[in-house]
Amino acid sequence: MLNWILLTFFSFVSAGFSAPESDPAQTNQANTKGNTTAVSATPQPTPRPSPNPDEEEEQEIRRNHQFLGEPARASAPAQTRMFIGQEVPVATHYTAPRIAPQANGGYIIQPATPTAFETRRTGTTINGAGFEETAIEGFIDYGSPIRTAVPVYNEKGEIIGTAIQEHPNPILQPVFRTIRKE
Fold it and tell me: Which of 70, 139, 144, 158 could bond 65 through an S-S bridge, CB–CB 3.0 to 4.6 Å?
């Protein structure tokens, strides 16, 4: 099986390439004139593919590339775009903070929670015309602390007043810096 594959491959590859053959009539003529060196035919230059191949030549090129396991050439060069970096999830929607009372008189405080996200690429994107570099500069906190009033008790267990407690409620949004070079 391997011999058959190699034979097929080399016969296919060598079909387009051949050494110039000498003309027997010229060789005999040269030998009869007393010249001891054999004269061979002038080698023909290897045909080059035309810059604008017709449909039949284009199909032949595609078949050859497909047989050799190479990608066929495209009719127009594709623009390459490459990204090096990471995708960062960014929260876009939040639930409102909640304060839920408990039966024993306490409270459960739930800060704002992100519910929807979008991704943002940070890193470098390179294309044929230039590049774009995006980085995170920092974060802005749009949240405000949750304030609750809690009773203040004395030694006898009597309420003597209230105190304000602050609970964190961060709503952080990243600040991006983008540099473009066209």
Answer: 70
Please check whether residues 51 and 96 belong to one and the same domain: no
What is the spatial distance between Cα 182 and Cα 167, in angstroms, rounded to a whole number?
47
- Does 142 lie in the same domain as 88? yes
Q: Report the alpha-carbon distance of residue 115 to residue 76 in Å, rounded.
A: 44
Look at residues 176, 88, 173 and name the one whose alpha carbon lies nearest to residue 137: 176
Q: Are 172 and 140 in contact (CB under 8 A)?
A: yes
CA torsion sign, 84 to 85 to 86 to 88?
A: negative
- Domains identified in the chain, total number: 2
- Residue 75 inside a domain? The answer is no
Verify that 111 and 52 share a domain, yes or no.
no
Compute the radius of gyration of the chain from its Cα atoms: 40
111 band by pLDDT with thresholds 50, 70 and 90 = very high
